[in-house]
Amino acid sequence: MAVSRRGFMATAATAPVLMRASEALAQGVAPRRGGTLQMMLTPEPPVLQIGVNQQGPTLAAAPKMFQGLLTFSSTLEPMPLLARSWTISPDGKEYVFNLQQGVKWHDGQPFTAEDVVFSIMKFHMELAPRARAIFQLIETCEARDPHTVRIVLKQPFQPFLLMFDATAAAMVPKHLFDGRDYRTAPAVQRPVGTGPFKFTEWQRGNFIRLDRNEEYWKPGQPYLDTIIYRIIPDSQSRRLAVESGQVLLSQASDIEPFDIPALRQRQNLEVNTNGWEYFSPLSWIELNHRVKPLDDARVRRAMSMAIDRNFIVNRLWFGVGKPATNPVASTTRFHDSSARLAAFNVAEANRILDQAGYPRNAQGVRFTLKHMALPYGEIWTRLSEYLRQAMRNVGIAFDMESTDAGSWARRVGNWEYETTINFVYQFGDPTLGVERTYVSTNIQRVTFTNTGGYANPQVDALFQRARASAAAAERQAAFSEVQKLLVEEVPQIWLMELAFPTIHDRRVRNVITTGLGVHTSFDDVFIAG
Amino acid sequence: MELSRLPGFLLRRGVKAVAVVLAIVVCNFLLIHAAPGDPASVIAGQSGAADERFLAQLREQFGLDKPFHVQLWIYLKGVLTLDLGFSHRQQQPVWKLISERLPATLLLTGAAFAFAVTAGITLGTLAARRVGRWADSIITILALTFYATPLFWVGLMLVLFFSVWLEWLPSFGMASVGVELSGLEAVLDVGKHLILPAATLGLFYLAVYARLTRATMLEVADQDFVKTARAKGVPEGQVVRRHVLRNALLPVITFAGIQAGQLIGGSILVETVFAWPGIGRLAFDALLARDYAVLLGVFFCTSVMVVLFNLVTDLLYAVVDPRVEVEG
Q: Looking at chain A from residue 172 to 201, which residues have their Cβ under 8 Å from any Cβ of chain B?
């Protein structure tokens, strides 16, 4: 179902999805009004205006205040939000969104189609690289009437709807941004959205407070009075805060994986790893193909075979996440489970390297590679230490380098590395989140492009075919073929489909109900008595 | 100290201080820009997607596209007019970010300072008077332990004991958030949050003061004027207070001056462990994010504090020991 193309009236097709979502909602417990939900936000974002800032913490907190036209189920089916219905023309070029009636911005102004046109064509086009790359395909975007938006694309683009989640293209108020410098407008400091919670206070380094929007357009919601994000920089202090009940919910990388087993033991806590389907982060050893012998596919294959991914998942991440099988995460559309990396086999890896002409020297080393650990927390250092051990088993020496986040981003962006660790969001569709790492047209001196420098005309052609096609079956064929090709080529050594645990007090209900998990509005979240 | 010499002294020291601070500003600027990575690449790295235009826009906005010497000149001009610049990352003026966080740090470090000085001197005096006996041994061992144990570990252990086991004190933050408290309740609430971080931060200095006081008191106690005082029949308590302690305080003041100079920046670890919203963490986060303006601003405030407290220390010497004269 996940890949079917929408027909004329997509509203009909979304009904079963809604049912499924409401089934996921707390069964049998009547929602309770009131209460304060204390959470954490790590690290503290610089600003909460989505678009101006697109970092993980912002994407988690901002959707409480800002909403997109759509949101997505755990199988990545679109669900109505600010758009109550939409239609797509048979040629896949014309999209018409019918907006919710009676929606108001937090400052009381009505939300209209003009805001939608502004948000898409000006705000995100100007600020957000990801949105810009997709919205450039728009030929016209117009407000037909105050509650109808019509978008015509230059060419069919099947993953288009995925760009309308709040984390990709949140709707922002035209009257507060138009004609101003978007980054310095006063609204950036005091966000104004349509969401169930209003921005109240931010004591930097301490907490962010959001309060109930009394004028919220969904009747009776939200249930919570207040959401408070505490800023707690030390991971052990965060764990203590969860254990002692001082915060009721932890998300993303608040809790280090090695603390999870202890928290699983606690009766009052629920550990949930769903809700990352839209992002589906995939981690890999990032190889710089300009460094010999990493340009040799046999070497990359052997390196991949030297890694025990089950060990990584079970011993380092304590069962949170899944071993990667190919470049497309299993939760992303068009994943082909028949395309699989060669299995863990140290003897075979050694044999391949012997045959490829990389003999061991007197110390048993075939060649040495520099390896830069990812500076995003203790767990990544542990991963790199494991990898050094695994590579030593096949005669490859990893020479470890340590950096901080700033140097890491700079060095990867400038191709000044040999190997490192990276993880990248897939955004639901390979065209949106996978293609960028492998096509030669995207070799740029910028992080999260094809920084490795892998180039293969066949791969380019297949991704292009999938991008240009409006037919899901044709796209699936192209994606299946490219996945099969890439597991042979191993341009990057995929390690793990990451999942981040959402750990919360059992009294907090409806936390994970969509494929966006904690990156949603929380309008239906409540604290049971 | 002759009061008539004071204005001249202050003027000479003031001129020197400005020169020193300016030199520090330039050094900081050079050092920070020598670190690899810039704010734009950090933001790109954290945003999950970027393109060339995005980076160029950010660099232009941050003023990083200008030649290096122009950036330095712009910053120096700003500092000379007491304008610390603008954090483009956080979209706020630097002085505002710093002034928001300064009270929290001053409260924490001030409390730790007061605790360390009073408890340290008292314990040191006690140990010196009971030298060689069990009270001395206990104090010396405790002081040595606090001196040698890493701060963050002490902090975590205190949290485990007082927050997790006994559930007496909160483990993080500066105040309860999300509850309405009236005046006195609010003060008590902050006080409760303050105990653990202030104790953690203060213990190290407490150890230093205790050891320093003990050592110098023992040294002074052997000197002739103390013997004379005893010989002429001055009561023991007065001998200790007026003759021994007062003369033994000079090195303690020197060290207190150094600690006071670090009041602003020296508490990053404790602020991190206890999620205390102070300036040390502001600096640390700014360093990781390459938020140059904020980092330079914090360094500037810190260096001004150090220079200022050195001056105060010099003046205090003269107050405690009239034989010391102030000289430029």
A: 183-184, 188-189
